[in-house]
Amino acid sequence: MNVRSFALADESYMARVKLDEITCRHGNVCIIDGITFEVPDGQFWVMVGPSGCGKSTILRTIAGLESATAGDVYIGESRMNQIPARQRDIAMVFSKLCPLPSHDRCRKSGLWLADASD
């Protein structure tokens, strides 16, 4: 899985997101094993990876829809592990890449940026 970040012109509404040694298990199956990364305040980021690598689980853990078995999730300076999803002020967008088969991954990921500049 790859995580890429991009600076945005208006940083006033974005907070730092940090995952520190996040592990998620479902029974005996380890879905995420010790993931650590930080997206600085004011950055837009994209996760790209094959089906089943844990992208959705990471997003659901950040949003509070799933709980980490170990590790910490921070939004801004606040540790969010025990904060319910409804209090996190987080939204997610999932993208199915099939509607644009003629575009490569990078172009698909950046389409909304072109729309936002109009």
Question: Can you give keywords for this protein?
Answer:
globular; 35% strand; four-stranded antiparallel β-sheet; alpha+beta; Rossmann fold; 118 residues; two-stranded antiparallel sheet
Structure description:
There is one protein chain. The protein is an alpha+beta fold. 18% of the residues lie in helices and 35% in strands. The protein is built from two helices and six strands; from the N terminus they run E-E-E-E-H-E-E-H. The chain has helices at 55-63, 105-116; strands spanning 2-7, 17-26, 29-39, 43-48, 70-75, 78-79. Strand 5 and strand 6 form a beta hairpin. The N and C termini lie far apart (31 Å).
How is this fold's topology laid out?
Layout: E1 2-7, E2 17-26, E3 29-39, E4 43-48, H1 55-63, E5 70-75, E6 78-79, H2 105-116
Antiparallel strand pairs: 1-4, 2-3, 2-5, 5-6
Q: Low-confidence stretches at least 5 residues in length (pLDDT < 50)?
A: none
SS-derived structural category: alpha+beta
How would a textbook summarize the main sheet? 4 strands, antiparallel
Total helices: the number is 2
Total number of distinct structural domains: 1
What topology, given as strand order, has the largest sheet? 3-2-5-6
Give the strand content. 25-35%
- What coarse outline follows from CA principal-axis ratios? globular
* β-strand number: 6
Overall residue-averaged pLDDT value: 78
